[in-house]
Specification:
Elements lengths: L1 E3 L16 E3 H14 L15 H4 L6 H13 L4 E12 L4 E10 L4 E9 L5
Antiparallel strand pairs: 1-2, 3-4, 4-5
């Protein structure tokens, strides 16, 4: 697997020839982070792509549905073989969610991703 490297603002990097790309386990890890941050109805070619973050950041969100949605989205990343652990730390006051996922990739690695999702990032 090979994908364009993203910067700290989640924008594509350009220039630098091959150093502007990630491959194998690094590429898979970046795609997992990107998939966690993607939200439903944002991609005009597939409105069902992503996670329904707007619904999950409402008062009293359905945590089981959120976990199921995250697992389905992360599992669909090319290179992810299995999800070994998924933990969610939700702060309903600040509308901040920390997603912690441990997975096994197609390259034989056990990888860990910790990604913060904030509602205000999409307001």
């Amino acid at each position: 697997m090979k994908t364009r490297r993203l910067d700290n603002n989640h924008d594509w990097t350009f220039g630098g020839s091959l150093s502007g790309y990630l491959k194998d386990a690094e590429a898979t890890k970046q795609c997992v982070k990107t998939r966690i941050l993607s939200f439903r109805n944002n991609w005009s070619l597939d409105l069902d792509h992503g996670i329904d973050w707007f619904a999950y950041f409402e008062k009293n969100p359905n945590r089981r549905a959120m976990e199921r949605d995250l697992k389905n989205n992360i599992s669909s990343v090319v290179g992810v073989l299995s999800i070994n652990e998924l933990r969610l730390l939700l702060d309903t006051v600040t509308r901040k969610l920390t997603v912690f996922v441990r997975y096994t990739d197609a390259y034989g690695n056990n990888e860990t991703v910790e990604q913060i999702v904030r509602y205000r990032d999409w307001e």
